[in-house]
Amino acid sequence: MAQEAQKEKSMIIQKEMVSGLFNDLAKAKETGKKVCYTFIPGNLSELIRVFDMLIVYPEINALQSAMRKKSATYIKEAERHAHSEDVCTYVKCDVGMMLKGNIGPTGEKIPEPDVLLLSYTGCFTFMKWFETLKREYPNAEVIMIHTPYQENAEMTPQMTQYMVKQLKEVVIPKFEKVTGIKYDEAKLKRHLELSAEAEDWITKIFDTTKHRPSPIDAYFAGVYYIGPINIGFRGTQQAVDYYKELYKEIMLRVEQGLGPITPEGEMKEEKFRLVVEGPPNWTNFREFWKIFYDMGAVIVASSYTKVGGVYDMGWRHDPSRPLEALAEYCMNCYTNLNLPQRVDLLAKCIEDYEADGYLTNSIKSCNSFSAGQLGMMREIEDRLEVPVGFIESDLVDPRYFSYSNIKNRLESYFQMLEQRKLIKAHEAAEA
Amino acid sequence: MSKYYLGIDLGSTTSKAVIINDKDEIIGRGITNTRANYKVAADIAREEAVYDARFTLLSNRLKHDLEEKPEFKTYMEDIRSVFQYRQFKRRMDSLAKMLRYTVSQFEHDNKDEVAAKLEEILKDIEPKIRHEFLFEGLGSKNQFFRDIVSERYNQQVAESAKGLFEPLMLAFDKSITPVENEMVQFNFKELVDEAMKELDVKYQALLRSPETVKKEDWYYAELNAVANNYKNVETSIKEHIDSIANDDIHITNMVGTGYGRALLPFPEDCIKSEILCHAFGAHAVFPNTRTVLDIGGQDTKAIQVDSHGLVTSFHMNDRCAAGCGRYLGYIADEFNISLNELGPEAMQADKETTICSTCTVFAGSEVRELLNNGEKRPNILAGLHKAIVQRAMSLIARSGGVKNEFTFTGGVARNQAVLKYVSQMVKDSYGDVTMNIHTDSIFMGALGGAMFARRNISTHLPDQKQAVTA
Q1: pTM higher than 0.90, yes or no?
Q2: Do A402 and B318 touch (CB under 8 A)?
Q3: Which ipTM value was assigned to this complex?
């Protein structure tokens, strides 16, 4: 990148939070803190905090490895250990990193897990992932609970009770056993209060894209914004403070009529507003982002920023029903919504944020996102008559990111959007 | 002064150019094989389109005679083929020189023998090719310089003595690339004069001994008409040729598209996505088009368009070439036949052999295995064609299916067997849908580009005017 990335205060705060997290992890042995590995969707951060455990998110490690250009080596290592080419590349990257000594993004060793907690089963790969890790870490306690899918577009009281029962009978007793700490509901409630507060702020933040120009990019910058709430800080004052600061900064941009910040400075002209479905590519993240901002495209909403929790429709962690709130949280993550719910959610984003187009980034090795993506795209196209686009890449395997193919598709897509705009303007002028 | 607009479609296999007038009518087409030097490919296609445009202008002036007198029609067809031969001849001379030089640099023990054989080949193939241009309409068969020469050269080399094969093939590979990548300047008027002289010789000879070649009766009837009256045609053409040759085919605006568009020396706002151009071109020729399938050399595109010809969604093949033109090219190499022969042979099949491989390269080994097992060649070819179409159909399904009307474009649309399976499968999956194919299918991207150029891209809305092919 030719230009040094612009740093806002919130970015500095976030950087400190993340490095603090990895420092704590590096010192886990000294401090005697227990370590819990879990996944972003359905992560029970608040409950884990009650037991004073540190959290490791294997998929975050994988994406960070990709951004540090290490994923190719890790994936190769995993494939050398008989993991097939078709396996989710997050898994292979994580396994490869482990085989290469489990060195995290700060250059320090990530501690071994005391607990492997699977609290979201919408992604079948997650289950297999921890089964694999279990073989590598035979002393870790494995906790797997079943999260019912929102097949009928609702979370029924029975579903919630089913989840609560698992939390009470499986998760909490095992946590107590591993940590020697007694479950403290009052403490959990305090965390949940802070969670709800952070959720309010992040909802307001992602809602600022209704301004023109949008002050933020809700996908490429959005993935940074969701960092604190997703990677263990949900339920802390730190997260609330971070989001307050971020919101303040964004609102200042709104007042000044400024567009989003990109790695090469502020985006000058907002030409296209898009809603994007699917995770980003991490191996060529900057390059990928650049194609968009070079063409004046800003993402006003994305499904990916909802993987760690869907707060748009008003759902919040409710401290008065702590375990029920956790149960609902797990069932309400984006990929646990049924396809019509996802379509409704994205259609609402397209309408609320006046998007010009809907783009799918289909990920080769991610089944939970890819299943149904084409159908959703057709449904959105039919319902809203919004121009749709489709590109293909991968999470962390650089072999599946073809810059020229993606640029070619996106160029065509943006030219297509430009024509639509002309037609619309023409029709409006005639009316 | 008339205004003309140019569209250049720099594809992975072929480069196409189309010139339209201010009524969206195609007046010139040019096509050549894409090569390492993209600029040369684009320039050759453009030059060809300009020559073609001049012939179109000439034909327009002779419109009445062309409609009324058969000798005018035949003479015009002949002169265009011979015109191409004259261009071919210049390139061939250049290639011969380069071949001789390449061989002279060899350090093979049998270098002299190789040089002698080379002379023998050159002496043999050039007149043969000339004959094909003059008497068999080679000029109208859409073959490129490289293909014409290599087919005949390879044939001769294959028959040569052991020990000569390798150096002769090496000499060709080393010589063809620089020759192909050099831009040869031609003068339209000069080439026309040369062509007329060649035709004069041809018709004089025919008048003297009309029985030299065994042909059907209708051929003689037409030929005799020309041979006896060609002087009149010559006179008419001579009346117009100076002004036609000097007519400024002024390109008011141009648009580049295709796989190599970013490499074209055009300003940024004159570069347009091939998806939009193909759709716009196809829609211009068939205004009711709603779904376009374009099978090109290295990619296959399924495009949905609205009533304005604007793209509403599209899908392209990623990561795999099975399902596009290159697959056919590869298969043709495997069978050691030319690309043009694939379709007709596949049409001879009594059934389609199932091809399991979804990979171009693996399909090659599967084909060899099937041949060893005694499968008939046409049946295997039919199976391969079907496999390509199946891939394209899956792409269409992903893009939203086939909506009425359906237009099939791209170089592969010229292949009869592909056409057969596309029609069949579209009917099976989407019922009775009007399917449009045009002889200019390969030029749709360039046509769309030229049409965007006429609309000056961003300042004018595309209208629904139909392009009428000249």
Answers
A1: no
A2: yes
A3: 0.80
